[in-house]
Amino acid sequence: MNNTKSFKDYELKFKALADEKRLQILHELVVRGKICVCDLCEIVDMKQSKLSYHLKILLDAGFIKKETEGTWSYYELNEAEVNEILSEKLCCVFTTKRE
């Protein structure tokens, strides 16, 4: 594979995306921008402990960024990573070159 990412890296990313709640979280970050975890709990109707679990998976996959201010954590979409997973770069791994 002529790529900087391994198949294992892609597996982690696709597993992170393979959950309805995590997709909802990503959607809310797209719509609202940077948001406090306390506000996100209300928006996605989830207890903070469960939300933290999903946020960690998205963070480990690189799809979101975290910033801590005092005792609060703020999350935002990592657009570069999301754009890369949706790019031609990945699609080229699974297509043949035909002329």
Automatic annotation (TrEMBL):
<keyword id="KW-0238">DNA-binding</keyword>
<dbReference type="GO" id="GO:0003700">
    <property type="term" value="F:DNA-binding transcription factor activity"/>
</dbReference>
<dbReference type="InterPro" id="IPR011991">
    <property type="entry name" value="ArsR-like_HTH"/>
</dbReference>
<protein>
    <submittedName>
        <fullName>ArsR family transcriptional regulator</fullName>
    </submittedName>
</protein>
<dbReference type="InterPro" id="IPR036388">
    <property type="entry name" value="WH-like_DNA-bd_sf"/>
</dbReference>
<dbReference type="GO" id="GO:0003677">
    <property type="term" value="F:DNA binding"/>
</dbReference>
<keyword id="KW-0804">Transcription</keyword>
<dbReference type="Pfam" id="PF01022">
    <property type="entry name" value="HTH_5"/>
</dbReference>
<keyword id="KW-0805">Transcription regulation</keyword>
<dbReference type="InterPro" id="IPR051081">
    <property type="entry name" value="HTH_MetalResp_TranReg"/>
</dbReference>
<feature type="domain" description="HTH arsR-type">
    <location>
        <begin position="2"/>
        <end position="97"/>
    </location>
</feature>
<dbReference type="InterPro" id="IPR036390">
    <property type="entry name" value="WH_DNA-bd_sf"/>
</dbReference>
<dbReference type="InterPro" id="IPR001845">
    <property type="entry name" value="HTH_ArsR_DNA-bd_dom"/>
</dbReference>
